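Table 4 source record.
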Amino acid sequence: MASSEQFANYPSLRDRVVIVTGGATGIGEALVHAFAMQGARVAFLDIQDDAAAKLIEKVGPSADVAYYHCDLINIAEVKSTVASILERFGTVDVLVNNAGNDARHKVLDVTQEFWDQTMAVNLRHMFFMSQAVIPAMREAQRGSIINMSSIGWAIPSTSQAIYVTAKAAIVGLTRTLSHELGPDNIRVNCIMPGAVLTERQQRLWLTDEYKATVLSNQALKRMIHPDEVARLALFLAAEDSSAITNQSYVIDAGWV
């Protein structure tokens, strides 16, 4: 991969308060690291304490990064965690709703409980995280909310019907929030990654057969890395994209 010196620096992100959900591993880890390297003040939520500790060590003592253990399925915990972040940092400028779980499942095996759990993990918390930060963004008359969707709903996908349903709904949530919050100068956009080479993907799903399928469908014949998704989020958070809202950006090496 190319060195960080080759990529853009965004002065408007320095000292901005950024919240990242699901920030301990995968794309979330890349997001936390990328914002920290821009000089932003970063709070990230997760339930993976060991991975979070390693990430804090990785970004180094000079970065203003704080970890909050938070089960995003528990909405009361979501609200109290955001309150704690606001107490520490004073405001919030950027929210990246990143957390999700792409566990595979067969349609005939889905129970009502599994449906509810999967939608809670992939969709519900995005609404309530956004709801929790809106008052601070309205007071500041600025803000950027970035919702992580997926191309999964836009391509033929199997064995993940609930996940794909949630990811499609995130696009709809992005569109309606952008219009409702636009008068307060709060921008809401969406990122739709393709097959990203996270540690989890490599460990659970990236068989030789799946990799061949991915590469045969992509225009670019190589895998996407988490830091490439993070760089798109940096742009959507920065003032460089100050007139951009209500958009869904595909980063999939040309699959869709």
